[in-house]
């Protein structure tokens, strides 16, 4: 991929012809500008992998993949910084690491009014590496530019990973992680429409962008699923580490038969539900997620009910209704027409500009790795949790 191609906007990229290579952009910290190339083979499967906390999968379910991270973790199959690059993309689906491309999933770039974070990466072992493998798991870090002195918008370098795997209804997802401690942290676990396979070493993930055979396959019906958007709740009584929210924000102009909406929210047993007066809907957890590791399980029911479940440490805390009627594409790998899938993103998005005091924030809020997400496991299954409604954290429906 040439620098000239990488610097174009989406519209210009679609119409671009040959052009001269542009000089490299100015920057105040070293970083790599080419996307990494994850392995093209299948992800590792672990037949004995479980969603944890006594959760039972319905008969016929099977493990799709299991990534266990950190040399101190039992059964770890990812123990090095290179293994992160082998299994995940480290950049957004469109756009390089320098330039905003205008996509809803390309929101980590300068010029976006919401985020200060920029998804950048270095070689493994670099002192400024943001994608670090430690004994306790994968550390997705954030730091201010100019050797941690410039925390202004667009100058907070932060890690993210995006899994090259197709998600659709009838599947279950587990992410075991510890959220950041910093007041200005934002550590979303979410999905967006489209998917992108690794082109392998030397290949370009932007090849044929906008065409029917592009590795990036975007749907004309775009939406996201926030398994836990997990951003700071300025103006509420919910401190960092205690917040959790879930749903499908209706912000992309999608034409729904029935708009996405909450069906169940826990409101008891330590969980406090906050209604639509605080947008989006969210809860206060009975624990500080930044003090230890917890299991977040997304159960995307495949029974035609169009329901999505959020399960935390074995308890169902929210269920949302969401229609899934995606566009289709012809997969160049097997020439079969398939519905456009979704992809998982774990993104460090420190610092959001709406966070109270963001303008005067200091690197990591002065805490050792205060904005760091630590991930110990990402696993998925073809199949669903058995009888999820029996796992409700309280008998109450928090919706009015």
Describe the structure.
- The chain has 400 residues and is mainly beta.
- It has a single domain (3-13, 32-391), classed as Jelly Rolls.
- It is 5% helix and 26% strand.
- The protein contains four helices and 23 strands.
- Strands 1, 3, 4, 8, 14, 17, 18, 19 and 23 form a nine-stranded antiparallel sheet that branches.
- It starts with a helix and ends in an 18-residue tail after the last strand.
- 45% of the residues are buried.
Layout of helices and strands:
Blueprint: H1 3-6, H2 10-15, E1 62-68, H3 81-87, E2 117-119, E3 131-134, E4 137-140, E5 142-144, H4 145-148, E6 156-158, E7 160-162, E8 171-178, E9 189-193, E10 195-196, E11 216-217, E12 224-228, E13 243-245, E14 261-265, E15 272-274, E16 282-284, E17 294-300, E18 307-312, E19 315-321, E20 328-330, E21 337-339, E22 342-347, E23 373-382
Parallel strand pairs: 2-6
Antiparallel strand pairs: 1-23, 3-4, 4-23, 5-6, 7-22, 8-17, 8-23, 9-12, 9-22, 10-11, 13-16, 14-19, 15-16, 17-18, 18-19, 20-21
